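Box 3.1 A note on notation
Throughout this textbook, protein chains are presented in two layers. The first layer is the amino acid sequence; the second is a token string describing backbone geometry. Keep the layers aligned when reading.
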Amino acid sequence: MQDRFINPGSIAGVEPLIRPHIRRTPIVEVAGGDFGLDSVHLIFKLELLQHSGSFKARGAFTNLLRREIPPAGVVAASGGNHGAAVAYAAMKLGKPARVFVPKVASPEKIERIRGYGAELVVRGERYADALAASEEWAERSGALRVHAYDQIETLLGQGTVGLEFEEQSPRLDTLLVAVGGGGLIGGVAAWYANRIKIIGVEPEAAPTLSRALGAGRPVDSPAGGIAADSLAPRRVGELMFPLAQKFVHEDILVPDEAIQEAQEALWKVLRVAAEPGGAAAFAALLTRGYKPERGERVGVLICGGNTHAVNFAHANGTGGQK
């Protein structure tokens, strides 16, 4: 059923619709030796430079441009990035938005959501709690639900990351993608449709896709770790799961320490400040959880940058380095 709606043709169809509203984010090609990964060619896609600080703007605009928006506007639940994207898209399109976030949402993401003019509601400890509250609000208000990952339009929008990456780097062998609810990897995997290897990467503390693949269906999983505000829903989406079964070659779990190491390496070598969820895919290479073959061209999606990991106020102050 998913193939009918979420495929390379349908992804290519939404790309011109959202193109005026999104950035074509850059790629950076790096010798693997710069990171101690000899004989590997790395191509980073810097989707953290997208509007609102993550790839989520693509799915948000696809939803708001393809679906009829009622007078009550739109409502979303989010760990932070999806909420910021929906708030940004709603602001640009002149629509009201209410965003529910859990207590684990980072101050940086909350600041973005409020800055874009959305009404922000903090509810519950985890994403699932905020989602339940948002659904109650949608029932009462008539607002349009914009799901973070389990929505056809969301998957189509995120799939344009793959379309764009292939245009920029057509000779990829493998692509590493972080997994939370699965909207990004579902859309990207649908775009490539087994033409390259797609590798999912998840925090050990939030193994949603790993548990689902083991069970043969989406199931509840732990939802913790340092990337809990972006990669820790209770379970992966129903719509993306058949796509993952068909098109995701492997799913790798990485510890929080490796995600932090990936953040530090990206900053040290590339001066890229990624949030934990944004750096998670790269952690699979640094831990050797994924071991490329000699000469392999490996793409890595750096998918989010809503963090104050670099404290410029401190660095430029009297106590910082000159």
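Strands lie at 27-31, 41-46, 74-77, 97-101, 119-122, 144-145, 174-178, 197-203, 250-254, 297-302. Residues 315-322 have pLDDT under 50 and may be disordered.
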